[in-house]
Design brief:
Blueprint lengths: L1 H15 L12 E6 L5 H10 L4 E7 L3 H10 L4 E3 L2 H6 L5 E4 L3 H13 L3 E4 L7 H8 L12 E3 L7 H7 L7 E11 L22 H13 L5 E9 L9 E9 L5 E10 L6 H4 L11 E6 L2 E6 L2 E12 L9 E12 L5 E12 L19 H13 L11 H18 L12
Bound molecules: NADPH dihydro-nicotinamide-adenine-dinucleotide phosphate and the ligand O=C1OC[C@@H](O)[C@H](O)[C@H]1O.
Length: 424
């Protein structure tokens, strides 16, 4: 127990602060970052350290002093005065875009048009109109097309891929996803609460819920219903959802519920007194999948049914911690007694996967790799035209993702996030 805790802490420390630094190869891809964004170190700069084919070469920020300070802190050799200057830099191969959602479209188009590969933060853009325009750009169908990826990092981690091997999407009956963040984590002037910048909880933490549900059913919903939301407090953008709840119907008859709260409060004893206390409950993004009950065996006088429930704890950041709990419930019914239940037995398994199983071709990784590091591996593999792990987020998938977000906002009675002026 003690050994395993020390091992976990060591893995975590290596992941976050101290990955081994790789010697860069002469053909390493040179990345430039648009904006000194908070997420850039975690999502790209730290993961790049251990990748011998990735070099973080340049940064641009709206304020040159901020860019210089960021460059100094993260040892980035080149600072550009503007985002446009960075994109025009012939020394840069790839652009990472961690800008507010509402600016993703404009800058992704500019970067791709300059022939750069683009790693684009999630959600890819503001709405499905932008997504169709971006991901169906004719330049992306050319033989020498640049790579464009919506950075749904969690899908690249072995834990998510292991989870997906545990069931057939056709058998999924219900999915419940909770993405909740304690109130106060993001200040009220954060980009997440700015409608013009395409904010809202569904666009933020909620985009994972939508992505996860689509991935679990391997299908698009036939409808969305029962959408409720909590707007921002008075004085803030009322078009921005602070929390949102929705139910989706899927073609196999299954349903999914998402529950997203970016300012979670309450849930304590004496609710009247504590309802405004920040809530740490559900702080680990969690999802529960229930599969349809299936007849597994039939003997003289008895039928046995199996029913599986799978819970994934911390599905968004499995590198910090995760656990996949699989409960298989066996129910034995007496067919001579009108199917009376005579026995119910639960079998529980707890699974985890920080690395790919040994010996699988193209699948590289280390226990301490974060979701972002696994994602970077595949991004580079695509650029270098190698097969890699086979995990990817296709452009058409990113379009469907935005269609589901749009449909949810429509059902909520909220406006779609605004389309960029740069989309003619
Ligand atoms: N993959 C993940 O785990 C995560 C992804 N994200 C995504 O990354 C993106 C950025 O999020 P985050 O890093 O938290 O955001 P920040 O606010 O920290 O960074 C956004 C950057 O955008 C730039 N910017 C340009 N124009 C504006 C503007 N008008 N207003 C505000 N900022 C502007 C700023 O750059 P400058 O330095 O030039 O001023 C700023 O540094 C979002 O799309 C978000 O959804 C966020 C967190 C986690
Ligand atoms: O991973 C994440 O966690 C917190 C969110 O607000 C953020 O945007 C998201 O990507």
């Amino acid at each position: 127990m003690m050994f395993s805790t020390i091992h976990s802490l060591k893995r975590l420390y290596t992941t976050i602060f101290d990955p081994p630094v790789a010697v860069k190869s002469s053909d390493a891809l040179r990345f430039g970052i648009l904006g000194a964004a908070s997420i850039a170190p975690q999502a790209l700069i730290v993961p790049a350290k251990s990748h011998h084919e990735v070099f973080i070469a340049a940064i641009a920020a709206r304020d040159i002093k901020k860019a210089e300070a960021f460059a100094k802190k993260h040892c980035i050799p080149t600072v550009h005065k503007t985002y446009d200057d960075l994109i025009a830099d012939p020394q840069i191969d790839c652009i990472y875009i961690p800008l507010p959602n509402g600016l993703h479209y404009e800058w992704a188009v500019k970067a791709l048009s300059a022939g750069k590969h683009v790693l684009l933060e999630k959600p890819s853009v503001s709405n499905a109109t932008e997504a169709k325009s971006l991901f169906r750009k004719p330049l992306l169908s050319r033989p020498d097309a640049p790579v464009l990826l919506e950075a749904f990092h969690y899908t690249f981690h072995p834990a998510w891929q292991l989870f997906k091997t545990l069931f057939d999407p056709q058998d999924v009956e219900t999915v419940d996803v909770i993405n909740s963040l304690v109130a106060g984590f993001f200040p009220l002037d954060d980009i997440r609460w700015n409608y013009k910048l395409s904010g809202g909880s569904l666009m933020d933490f909620g985009s994972y819920s939508v992505s996860a549900v689509r991935s679990i059913f391997a299908a698009e919903p036939t409808g969305v219903r029962d959408v409720t939301y909590r707007p921002m407090p008075a004085g803030f953008d009322q078009e921005c959802d602070q929390a949102i709840y929705a139910t989706y119907d899927f073609p196999n008859g299954g349903t999914a519920k998402i529950s997203v709260d970016l300012q979670a409060r309450g849930g304590y004893w004496f609710p009247a007194l504590t309802k405004n206390w920040p809530s740490f409950a559900n702080s680990l993004p969690t999802l529960t999948v229930k599969l349809r009950s299936k007849k597994a065996d039939s003997q003289e006088g008895y039928d046995m049914y199996l029913h599986k429930t799978i819970v994934v704890h911390c599905y968004v950041g499995p590198h910090f911690y995760h656990r996949i709990d699989v409960t298989t419930t066996a129910t034995i019914k007496d067919t001579y007694l009108a199917n009376k239940i005579v026995k119910v037995e639960d079998k529980k398994e707890h699974l985890k996967a920080y690395k790919w199983p040994a010996g699988e071709e193209g699948k590289k990784g280390e226990e301490w790799w974060s979701t972002y590091r696994y994602q970077l591996e595949e991004f580079v593999n695509r650029v270098k035209k190698r097969d890699g792990s086979g995990v990817w987020v296709e452009g058409e998938d990113s379009i469907k993702q935005m269609e589901m977000i749009d449909a949810t906002y429509v059902e909520a009675g909220l406006p779609l996030r605004p389309t960029s002026d740069t989309l003619g």
